[in-house]
Amino acid sequence: MRDAIITICKENLSPNGIAYVSYNTLPGWNVVKTIRDMMVYHSQNFGDAETRLREARQMLNFTIENSIGDDTLYRQMLQQEARLVSESADGYLYHDHLEHHNDPCYFHEFMSKAVDKGLQYLGDQNFPAMNLSSCAEPARSVLAQMDDIVRQEQYIDFLTNRRFRRTMLCHADVPISRDVTSDRLEGSSIVRCWFPRMVSILST
Fold it and tell me: Does a structural domain hold residue 35?
């Protein structure tokens, strides 16, 4: 499916079009996978979606309440994820944590497929996440020396344990300048359209 989505982006973009793809990423989902696996294992014994959702939430709470140790890293991880799950809508939980196919990947793996299809990385929809200022000073100094934006952002993902990305792609032959200034943004407009959890194609 990942290959198909990237192919659709390539084949349908206008010359200056932008494709928007959201997806779960590693390393952040390495931790979430443990939570997902236990919820799927337990809830698969029930038929309808409503019951599966209720049982999945109960399974997570059961594990937190009965995990060994009061202040272990494992218990803290479960508690943190339980807070996220409790705040999540049923639709999100069912089509993310309980989805039959959920195959997170590293950012560089996603971009390798995109490059093979003739696309390049434009940026992330969450622009502040691309800013090195969020990193500690030693990391900023090292990462600032990298002239490969994909490699640079993969290291940021390692440092932040990132679990979700909103990647914008464009054709490989489009010249890109990431020197964002107020005068360059003046008069610009953005048209946004998307399908939840899938892909959006924007044309300029």
Answer: yes
Taking only the tens place, the pLDDT of each residue in 149-189 is 999 999 999 988 899 999 999 999 999 887 767 776 666 55
Q: Please, which residues have CB within 8 angstroms of residue 169's CB and are 6 or more apart in sequence?
A: 6, 9, 18, 19, 20, 21, 114, 119, 120, 121, 122
pLDDT tens digit sequence for 116-143: 999 999 988 887 777 787 777 788 888 8
Domain count of the fold of the chain: 2
Beta pairing partners, 202: 18
In one-letter notation, the amino acid at residue 143 is L
DSSP 77: H
Predicted TM-score of the model (pTM): 0.77
